[in-house]
Amino acid sequence: MHSLILGNGINRVAMQKGWGEILRELAIRFDGVDLLPYIELKPLSMFIEELCARSKLSFRNAEHEIKVEFAGLLKQIKPVLAHERICSLFNVILTTNYDFTIEEALAGPMHSPRFLAPESRYSLFRRHIAANKEIWHIHGDVGRPGSMLLGFDHYAGNLQKIRNYVTDSVEVKGAAWGRVSSATKGGNLEFTENRKIYSWVDYFLRDHLHIVGLSLDFTEIDLWWLLLHKRRRLHQTGKVFFYQVYLGVEEKETPVLSLLKSLNIEIVSVLSETYHDGYLRIAELIEERIGLLPSLFSKPAQSADDVTQKPTDRAKTYKQIALRFPTESP
């Protein structure tokens, strides 16, 4: 089982306005002209917090106005071939993007929300369906600006909810379910068949993941925590691939790449003359890896020796088995 995590990379290729131009418009709209020299050097989450802190409005009202304005600026994005080429390879797509460009690339206007549980601020259970594919806007969407994960405070709250879902449980309001925990917490790998409520987090922890067009800024603490948790799990069921496009000469090692490699994540670099051509090449490389890894890693079989082991010894054995999974595709 393979899932895609799609970031803003292809969207930047498709934008009629550059990312920097959109951020400048946002800064000017909220009296942040003096912030322009550093606008693309700051993490988006901290830039949003900066605009809120400088506003004469309360933080809550300022955050709402900024999100509504930002949502309007993002609705201009039109899909390109790379959107369709990469997204068509997956039935489950997780995206940090707020816009509906993926849905439009797959199904035009024929897409709709199919939320599995009601939420107002966070997006554990917000699912959209387009061409029979699941698209999860894990950081919110422009259709509900209040759900858009922008400020650092919102990131911290999102991580708190994700961690509670994975390690304990979260309350589902307005339904008879009460509290719900992650299906993977109990080793349930067939959660789409035997549960009514599950989350994109369950796909993240279970599946082979293909990360495309995502810079993984260190302020994206929710994604880093999940990557670390996926690596720390005793039984690892899926690999992680991180794809990147370089123009011209390949870039040097970065702190992000160094950490990803330490987490046993395979880095797949593509040299290209244009970013769009690079993403089309990535689609080919994804197809190859899906063919090499058609299903999840099997749980190590329990032998007679395992039964007689003490719990602590058994845990050590499974850890050793998990570490023997290949670090590269065969």
Report on the structure:
- The chain is of the alpha/beta class.
- It has helices spanning 9-14, 19-29, 44-54, 59-74, 81-87, 101-107, 152-167, 191-194, 200-206, 221-232, 255-262, 275-292, 304-308, 311-323; strands at 2-6, 92-95, 111-113, 128-130, 133-137, 170-171, 179-180, 208-212, 240-247, 266-272.
- The protein has three domains: 2-13 and 77-292; 17-76; 302-330, no CATH class.
- The strands form two sheets. The chain has an eight-stranded mixed sheet with strand order 3-4-5-2-1-8-9-10, sandwiched between helices.
- Helix 3 packs across helix 4, helix 5 (81-87) packs parallel to helix 12 (275-292) and helix 7 (152-167) runs parallel beside helix 10.
- The protein is globular and about 55 Å long.
Topology summary:
Elements: E1 2-6, H1 9-14, H2 19-29, H3 44-54, H4 59-74, H5 81-87, E2 92-95, H6 101-107, E3 111-113, E4 128-130, E5 133-137, H7 152-167, E6 170-171, E7 179-180, H8 191-194, H9 200-206, E8 208-212, H10 221-232, E9 240-247, H11 255-262, E10 266-272, H12 275-292, H13 304-308, H14 311-323
Parallel strand pairs: 1-2, 1-8, 2-5, 8-9, 9-10
Antiparallel strand pairs: 3-4, 4-5, 6-7
Helix pairs in contact: 3-4, 5-6, 5-12, 7-10, 9-10
